[in-house]
């Protein structure tokens, strides 16, 4: 087995040339109808084969990921497992067939509005998908991560623009997964990789690409979203961009479990060096909370952790300095940040405090996401004003968290929960947002700037919806219909059927 760890003879893959990008796009285009036509169980078996291959190569892949990203073995081992679980979840989703949303309305000469034709609607794959991989999840949001798994499950070939932060891991993961898919019956070109920013932009403009997904910064995501929208034929662009995930603690919650709140908050801020899209960037505590010493003590016990790459470390240094220099900001745990000779940064948690009025006054300096182990404690006077403060301060987020006392259900608490639901994709009660369960009911998305499309999710089985397009067939002969729409139902998927004469009973409740 080839090892890429500390191997100077193994250079990072070269940027993909325009000619190579064109070949990649054409292979995906050629594979598209073949992959889409595979019966659900065959496509599901291919996804399971990919999951098995990842786990069979766990030791090698985790070692490469540790070398390139600085993340811990425990974190990466768990993330690889999560990536395999995502593939298996989508395998079951395919076999279940509900995601196709098959609707059949029988021809009806007695329809309430006149003669109704035979109508059959389902959701079909959109075509080749371009996925821009993330830096902070080298498995779960990268080559074989959630976006790739969802697009493949929907029946689309996927081209992954590999992230420059882990190029050798990307190459190895892509080779392993593509081979497993093809051995299981997928056509050549079902999963491919490209390298380099220019190649990603070129393919995003290519008319053969039908949709794109992205996880990264607001700046880069907005540029790519605008490119997708400005194409002669615009395409859907599903970007996850930025989130500060505010958390709110009531006085009752603080009096009941102050130590537990302090433990959970510091762990959530410092996990993976704070390089998580769900890190709580702001914690609202009542004035006089008395938690400063507890937070400082817990932060001081956290060992330094390497940031993902020199670019992220430099960005964190600038953001941290800006926050520490802002008027009204008081350090609770100043933390540390050191650099080695290669520009890699090593950090311990920084936690600061600010009064809510000062946060409002310094919003330009303080409200942007700090990608790293830094969070801001916001001191408020009245719980009755929390929802109003949130409305004044925050745009869309992936999450919002509430810590309340046992049985607490005040009008102000209800107003706060309602505000979070209107401005975030996931509302947490009593927990912490880092840690996203891969499960059918998960929602990982939110209003701008958390995502470019707040009606979708990038985690959970509903993530498949992004890469499907509805189409209806009218009066089509059975032999010419797609398999899920035929009366014989060879794919054995759920079919919702409107029967002849049924419209005459509509509204008779």
Q: Would you write up a description of this structure?
A:
InterPro entries: Ald_DH/histidinol_DH, Ald_DH_C, Ald_DH_N, Aldehyde_DH_dom, Aldehyde_DH_Superfamily, ALDH_KGSADH. It comes from Cryobacterium gelidum. It holds the Pfam family Aldedh. By secondary structure, the protein is an alpha/beta fold. The chain has 15 helices and 19 strands. It folds into two domains: 236 residues, 3-Layer(aba) Sandwich (Aldehyde Dehydrogenase, Chain A, domain 1), CATH 3.40.605; 183 residues, Aldehyde Dehydrogenase, Chain A, domain 2, CATH 3.40.309. The protein has a seven-stranded mixed sheet, with helices on both faces. A five-stranded parallel sheet has the order 5-4-3-6-7, with helices on both faces. A four-stranded mixed sheet has the order 18-2-1-19, with no helix packed on it. Strand 3, helix 5 and strand 4 form a beta-alpha-beta unit. Helix 3 packs antiparallel against helix 6 and helix 9 packs parallel to helix 10. The radius of gyration is 25 Å and the shape is globular. The relative contact order is 0.14. The N terminus is likely disordered.
Number of strands: 19
The low-confidence runs, each spanning 5 or more residues with pLDDT under 50, are: 1-9
- Count, helices: 15
Q: Using the alpha-carbon principal axes, give the shape.
A: globular
Q: Going by CATH, what is the homologous superfamily of the largest domain?
A: Aldehyde Dehydrogenase, Chain A, domain 1
The CATH class of the largest domain turns out to be Alpha Beta
Percent helix range = 25-40%
> Which architecture of the largest domain does the CATH hierarchy give at level 2?
3-Layer(aba) Sandwich
Spatial extent as radius of gyration: 25 Å
Mean pLDDT: 96
Q: What count of structural domains?
A: 2
Largest sheet: 7 strands, mixed
Structural class: alpha/beta
The spatial strand order of the largest sheet comes to 11-14-15-9-8-16-17
Strand content: 15-25%
Q: Report, as a whole number of angstroms, the end-to-end distance.
A: 66 Å
CATH topological fold name of the largest domain = Aldehyde Dehydrogenase, Chain A, domain 1
């Amino acid at each position: 087995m080839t090892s890429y760890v500390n191997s100077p003879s193994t250079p990072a893959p070269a940027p993909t040339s325009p000619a190579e990008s064109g070949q990649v796009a054409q292979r995906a285009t050629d594979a598209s109808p073949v992959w889409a036509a595979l019966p659900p169980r065959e496509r599901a078996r291919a996804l399971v084969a990919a999951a098995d291959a990842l786990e069979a190569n766990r030791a090698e892949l985790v070692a490469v990921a540790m070398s390139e990203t600085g993340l811990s073995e425990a974190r990466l081992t768990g993330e690889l497992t999560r990536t395999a679980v995502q593939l298996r979840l989508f395998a079951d989703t395919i076999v279940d067939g509900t995601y196709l949303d098959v609707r059949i309305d029988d021809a009806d000469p007695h329809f309430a509005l006149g003669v109704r034709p035979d109508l059959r609607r389902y959701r079909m794959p959109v075509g080749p998908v371009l996925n821009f991989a993330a830096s902070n999840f080298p498995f779960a949001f990268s080559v074989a991560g959630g976006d790739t798994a969802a697009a493949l499950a929907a029946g689309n070939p996927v081209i992954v623009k590999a992230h420059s932060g882990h190029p050798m891991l990307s190459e190895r993961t892509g080779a392993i997964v593509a081979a497993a898919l093809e051995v299981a019956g997928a056509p050549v070109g079902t999963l491919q990789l490209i390298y380099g920013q220019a190649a990603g932009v070129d393919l995003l403009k290519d008319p053969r690409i039908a949709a794109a997904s992205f996880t990264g910064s607001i700046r880069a995501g907005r540029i790519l979203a605008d490119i997708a929208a400005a194409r002669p034929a615009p395409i859907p662009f599903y970007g996850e961009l930025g989130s500060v995930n505010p958390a709110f603690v009531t006085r009752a919650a603080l009096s009941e479990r102050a130590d537990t709140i302090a433990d959970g908050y510091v762990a959530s801020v410092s996990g993976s060096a704070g390089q998580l899209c769900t890190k709580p960037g702001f914690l609202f505590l009542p004035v006089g909370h008395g938690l400063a010493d507890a937070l400082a003590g817990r932060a001081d016990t956290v060992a330094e952790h390497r940031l993902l790459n020199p670019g992220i470390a430099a960005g964190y240094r600038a953001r941290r300095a800006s926050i520490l220099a802002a008027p009204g900001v008081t350090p609770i745990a100043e933390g540390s940040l050191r650099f080695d000779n290669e520009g890699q940064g090593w950090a311990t948690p920084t936690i600061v405090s600010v009064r809510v009025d000062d946060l409002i006054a310094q919003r330009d300096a303080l409200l942007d996401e700090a990608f790293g182990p830094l969070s801001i404690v916001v001191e408020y006077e009245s719980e009755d004003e929390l929802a109003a403060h949130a409305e004044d301060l925050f745009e869309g987020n992936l999450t919002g968290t509430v810590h309340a006392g046992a049985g607490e259900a005040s009008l102000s608490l209800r107003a706060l929960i309602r505000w979070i639901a209107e401005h975030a994709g996931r509302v947490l009660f009593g927990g912490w947002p880092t840690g996203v369960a891969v499960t059918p009911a998960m929602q990982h998305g939110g209003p701008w700037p958390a995502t470019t499309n707040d009606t979708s999710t990038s985690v959970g089985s509903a993530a498949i919806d992004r890469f499907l397009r509805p189409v209806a067939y009218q009066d089509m002969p059975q032999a010419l219909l797609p398999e899920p729409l035929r009366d014989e139902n060879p794919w054995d998927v759920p079919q919702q059927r409107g029967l002849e004469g049924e419209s005459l009973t509509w509204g008779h409740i």
